[in-house]
Amino acid sequence: MSGVIIAGAAETDQVGKLPGHSTLQLHLEAALNALADAGLTTKDIDGIATVSSPGPVQVAHALGIVPRWMDGTGVGGTSFLLHVRHAAAAIMAGHASTVLITHGESGRSRVGAARFAPAPSSIPGQFEAPYGVSGATSAFTIPALRYMKDYGLTREQLAYVAVAQRRWAAKNPRALYRDPITVDDVLASRIVAYPFHLLECCLVTDGGGALIVTSADRAGDFPQPAVHVLGTGESSETPLISQMKDFTESQAFRLAGQAAFAEAGITIGDVGHLMIYDAFAHVPIYGLEALGFVAKGEAGAFISDGHTEPGGSLPLNTNGGGLSYTHTGMYGMFAIQESVRQVRGEAAAQVAGPEISVVLGNGGMFATSGVLVLGRSAR
Amino acid sequence: MSPVAAGKAVPVPTPETQPFWDGCAAGELRIQRCLDCGQPYFYPRPVCPDCGSPRVEWFTASGRATLYSYVISHRPAPGFEEEAPYAIAVVQLAEGPRMMANLTGVPQTPEALELDMPLRVTFERRGDMSLPVFAPAEEGR
Asked: N or C: which end of chain B has fewer CB within 10 A?
């Protein structure tokens, strides 16, 4: 186990369409909410982690925090899981005692948001952008057809991923989309990038979230039940989707998961709740297989047989996920937030008291991964 | 901000990728291989990704490939408006490495685009550059 806890966790007051908030404002609102959740003030914080932009220097300065440790790891939407991992190491090394991790992104309204387009001389700019890649929708999705052909995943099974998650979203008043949908609805929604339909693609929203990480010695010192960080893992595979080793599996998911499970000393049978970053409907399929919950090629049927939806044996993406809850662009923070809520027992769609929750984060397009094993008690 | 907003993205070579683009201009698909372990690889870089050796060389690939995977994008990137929907593919070269490409000389439909179909390289003008793209090939060519 890592020796640290998540002592505070909160999202922005609202998520969705927030044209009145800049990216920086979303960071700050989330930070203040997480501090309040932990019963702390900015003066209690001596370490800070977030992605650029705005980056740790800007967020710390805006809040009047003078860090003695900082981490600006920015490797896509999983970065916040890596921040938790790096904060754990820093706290155990004595480099910081109480770390604030923030996310904020005006992903939909683009207020004060950074532009992203690869430089034409960069590797993606030379070898992928010229072929008409238009955001993640037209690139993150490319591996799926290979998986479908090699493992017999059907269009209906892919569509069912969105159906299952909408069933969770229906229980979450903060979810952007809550109305029930069917496989036929998904297949009738317009094609965005064949074989993907609109309802198989994540939302684009505004919002933020923040975490307070500190030593497990202080569990019990805070208003909320401590959430123990039992194990963590991280890995990277490729900056170019075209260079993913095998289009039917994520090496980064698998390696990050193995590291986290080994550190926590758990097996899949110990996991009562699971979050898998779902930018597109195929990603939970890759995630379930990479973590070993099902054998290769079986995740589509596992989901369409109902095992991950309300009432199923493995509650997955219980906030509704990126497909139905919210997706600012770097969704990993929201996946962690939902795991914290489930372990605390305060989620909108609360599952029966999970002792252990696992979060699998994706960064970029199968580029990077982080995994956290969170638990109600130290092991 | 870039003054070019409307056109398709044009690659800008760097010193380590220049031989690749020079090959394209000459109508050849030049990639690299390792002199120590023999492994061919793409994208251009001065170290073998398999064994870590810096002893690498350029060679001209056959240009034969198969269709590994793709999407058909309905949301055009700048400059692609008139072509949408269009396929963004990843092809597997006969030598082993994979690369992203567009497909030409074939309808951009799921019916026409079968995974593992044989392809051959051809080159498309893009600004002052030549860009490798792939067209259907007869078996055995």
From this structure: N
